[in-house]
Write a structure and sequence with these properties.
The protein is globular. It is built from 5 helices and 2 strands; from the N terminus they run H-H-E-H-E-H-H. The longest helix has 20 residues. Helix 1 crosses helix 2. The protein is mainly alpha-helical. Strands 1-2 form a two-stranded antiparallel sheet.
Amino acid sequence: MNYDNPEQLRRALLEHIANQAQGNEDLRQRLTNEVAFERMLARLGPEFGFVIGGIATKYLLPDSPATKDVDVLVQRALAEQYDLIDKNPEERSGVFGK
């Protein structure tokens, strides 16, 4: 299906997630997070780095507990390119947006 703008796609996606969750708020939040994580990782691409931590476990073992964040091991060349090595975690998080 094609959408005229990103907001229409977002609304349709959230409606689909709500239908899948059938009123279960925890499930709705988990599905919303999973879509957000997958889209973020798709935008970063495989050359960016490696997924580690809870999200990596979730991809390997789909029945594992939900995670609330995405841990990514960034390749050194990209870390140097974006001057991430000498920044603290708060400063690094602002490089790619929150």
